[in-house]
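Regression test attached.
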Amino acid sequence: TLLGIICTDVKIQASSIRALLTYGNQNSFNSITIDGDTSTNDTVALLANGAAAPEGAPELSLPFDAKGAVIKGNVSEDVKAFEHILVRFMTDLAKLVVRDGEGATKFVTVRVISDTSRVAAKRAAVSIAKSPLVKTALYGKDANWGRILCAVGYAPGIMSTDIFRLHPQRTSVSFVPSDGSEPLRLVVRGEPEQVDEVRAKEILEMEDLEIVVNLADDLGSNQVYTCDFSHEYVTINGDYRT
Amino acid sequence: ADRSIPAAKQKYVPSSGTYPKGFLAGSAHAGVKASNTKYDDIAMIVSEQPCAAGAVFTQNVFKAAPVQTSKMTLRDRKGESMRGVVVNSGCANAVTGLVGMEHADAMAQATDDCFGRASDGRGPQTLVMSTGVIGQRLPIDRITEAIPRAHKDLGSSHENWMKAARAICTTDTFPKLISRTFTLPSHPETQYSIAGMTKGAGMIAPNMA
């Protein structure tokens, strides 16, 4: 189960908190997966008491239209700034959860770039991040890019090419090391590269790793944070209830 | 089990922090899980003054009792005049029927009692969270006895926050606590703070709304 409690001494209008939290949650806690199981108890709360606000300072509030949707053009600079702070803060909290996934030894960012939609990118990223075969390969430091492409290929909606127009011959896969060194290209536009296994091993030895999948050549992207899948996960969960 | 933090994870645990004004954190031991004989498993985070609150919740159809209770609390209060959050680890209070709902409500009421219940007739001012095993009932007497002890433990120090962050853990190997300061464009001379704790470890693929 994921639980989160966030407190701030900014003054925020109660009706705006939910919208701010929902926005922040989408690219943070809702973009992580350890084992693909959605709990019955997941809850993240945001509390704001205004204790640090100077006398007379207005509370942060979002402008809503009659249907309850945020009127984006009318958002104040203070709200924009706080929203940015909140998203980064929630993302950093969410990343800590991934780093401590049961049995995890690696922190993996899965970034998918799509020229059709961010939804397609998210679905593909989640599919990779949830795949037990991808995750066990990461644990074993095996550059098994075939499993990555396989997981993209069965992502919900992806198989319906009318919707997402996935073209295998335009799809590329790379590992991006966390030390800033050159990415390792595994597949380029549907063609497998001659993989330098020594270099692949070097990258997979690192605690942090990014997998980049480009579904075409462009620009909408989405990312999901995950971890590897080790023997320890089975050990922990084999007798959790007892 | 031994809860010493693995060497590889110690870099993620802060040794100090700057916490938001007017918020207090506390914890206590209730022994929710029978095998836990010494570690705190009740956490309380409260605002000294009533505050605004909101939450996102799991969309799993089998929502645990504390999820249902907390949703109702926020709906009834419109997110206003809240006081805080009480959390137990060791038992999820999920799929526990009507008794589970009563237990979640008892946790909220026991926490409210520590401050004096609101007289506005709008129900509890406390959100409830539980984490642990599904399908088992809470040892509610032990929990409601521990809640006043968590209240007595409340404080604003880094140690208070860290103990609370530890108390919400289950299979986590380290407490997850972050705090930051910031300013806003309209009054850059005012320093604000934000602090948060989280826990996870397993059964993690959140889809909250």
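Expected vs. actual: identical. Chain A touches chain B through 72 residues (CB under 8 Å).
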